[in-house]
Design brief:
Helix content is 38%, strand content 22%. The protein is of the alpha+beta class. The protein folds into 2 domains: 24-216 and 345-431, Zn peptidases (Aminopeptidase); 218-337, Alpha-Beta Plaits, CATH 3.30.70.360. The strands form 5 sheets. A 6-stranded mixed beta sheet has the order 1-2-6-3-7-16, sandwiched between helices. Strands 4-5-18-17 form a 4-stranded antiparallel beta sheet. Strand 17 and strand 18 (410-412) form a beta hairpin. It is elongated. 46% of the residues are buried. Bound molecules: zinc ion (ZN).
Length: 432
């Protein structure tokens, strides 16, 4: 038999309902009317955002698949046009073998001029969209199709709340973030152009646990080429044969670690080394041969260098060159840096000021504080190319897990709405 529902029970239920409504209202107490509407519209956009994520993850777009990258861009372009953006493709020359960049813009006079960044390409391919509870797996699910979707969910909510009117916002979705076209200066000139016409850059790379990114390290690659005298091994250390190329390479690398290895945010990693009587090394692959009774006349090593500011890079390069120039007896060495360096996003007071606006928006939404991510925990990104021109934030995209650039990448579908709400209110506060 079913017990009659007591009036007490009904009273208690109503009280709990009122309490939880009150909690939402309290969480949104710091929001104005428009912001509350923006938060509501964002939440209402969850199903659309999930559907869009599935659609774009299921279009394969590794950097080298130009048609795939264009198709993903076209999908986002249609969504952006539906909320009033004009869109066009910035073409790259055919010999660069890159898809180009999608640009979408609206014009206005209110508030700050914003540049919103995303990218269309992925490193890997082959993993289709698959939902498992609140997780969405698939190539690019977080890096960064999920981020683009968060950006769109935010813009749609702003549009629905009438908060895109008279705003100046440019969206740039690059087609080659994961493997930038060469020459790099040409591939990134369109982004620099847009940055010069903007006040603030917001980038939607994956969000990392309650943080935003105010600094990302830059990267350069280097090649060390070492020479020495060859001859019978018994003559090593002697006045005629000297130390040989392998000892000289070892000396240089050991000194890199000893003299530069404890500086904050500076790392240099020798990734591959070959040495012997014959040695060859291209970007990723090396061969070497030698005999135990012959002194090695050649050694080659390649590696990377990561730094938080251009000053740190300059100073590291100088110290590395000084180490190279010391030379063991009868050896020589040259250290060459790549042309295609990724510049750093250096933490600045401007970036910190933006973070505090985001932090305020997040708290007012009841989503908790947002702290700065340790710049050591994030690789280089597109925003580094323009962060000397204007303040910016990164890491505004969807929250994810698994390793990006590895199979098993997923995004938390339950992060789409909160992350989009945070960014939507941030954009509103910067542009009202
Ligand atoms: Zn990315």
């Amino acid at each position: 038999m079913e017990a009659p529902v007591s009036t007490n029970f009904i009273r208690r239920t109503i009280a709990i309902l009122l309490l939880s409504l009150g909690a939402t209202a309290a969480a949104h107490a710091g929001l104005d009317r428009t912001e509350r509407a923006i938060a509501r519209h964002t939440a209402a956009g969850q199903a659309d955002a999930e559907a869009l994520l599935q659609r774009v993850v299921d279009i394969e777009s590794p950097t080298e698949n130009l048609a795939g990258v264009r198709a993903v861009g076209d999908a986002f372009a249609a969504e952006l046009r539906a909320i009033g953006f004009r869109t066009h493709w910035v073409e790259m020359p055919p010999e660069m073998k890159r898809a180009g960049h999608l640009v979408a813009e609206i014009d206005g006079r209110k508030g700050k001029r914003l540049l919103l960044l995303g990218h269309l390409d992925t490193v890997l391919r082959g993993e289709p969209f698959r939902r498992d509870g609140t997780r969405a797996y698939g190539t690019g699910a977080t890096d960064m199709k999920g981020g683009n979707v968060v950006m769109l969910q935010a813009l749609k909510a702003l549009h629905a709340a009438g908060a895109l009117k008279d705003r100046r916002i440019v969206v740039m979705l690059t087609g080659d973030e994961e493997d930038a076209g060469m020459p790099l200066a040409m591939a990134r000139e369109p982004m620099l152009d847009l940055a010069r016409r903007s006040d603030i850059a917001l980038s939607f790379e994956a969000a990392i646990d309650g943080t935003a990114t105010i600094g990302r390290r830059g990267i350069n690659g280097w090649t060390l080429e070492v020479t020495g005298e060859t001859g019978h091994s018994s003559g090593i250390f002697g006045p005629e044969r000297g130390s040989g190329a392998v000892y000289e390479a070892a000396r240089i690398l050991a000194a890199f670690q000893a003299e530069l290895g404890s500086e904050r945010y500076l790392t240099l990693n020798p990734s591959v080394i070959v040495g012997g009587t014959k040695a060859e090394l291209d970007d990723y692959r090396g061969t070497a041969e030698g005999k135990t009774n012959v002194i090695a006349p050649v050694a080659i090593a390649r590696g990377d260098l990561r730094y938080i500011s251009l000053e740190q890079e300059r100073s590291a390069v100088e110290r590395m060159q000084a180490i190279v120039a010391r030379h063991l007896p009868r050896t020589g060495a040259t250290l060459r840096f790549d042309d295609g360096a990724y510049p750093p996003m250096t933490p600045t007071p401007g970036n910190e000021a933006l973070l505090s606006v985001l932090d305020g928006a997040s708290r007012d939404l009841g989503l908790g504080p947002v702290a700065a991510l340790d710049p050591g925990e994030r690789g280089a990104g597109d925003i580094g190319f323009i962060s000397h021109l204007l303040p910016g934030l990164d890491g505004l995209g969807s929250g994810g897990g698994g390793n990006s650039h590895a199979p098993g990448e997923f995004t938390g579908l339950d992060t789409l709405t909160p992350m989009a709400q945070r960014s939507a209110v941030l954009i509103y506060r910067l542009t009202r």
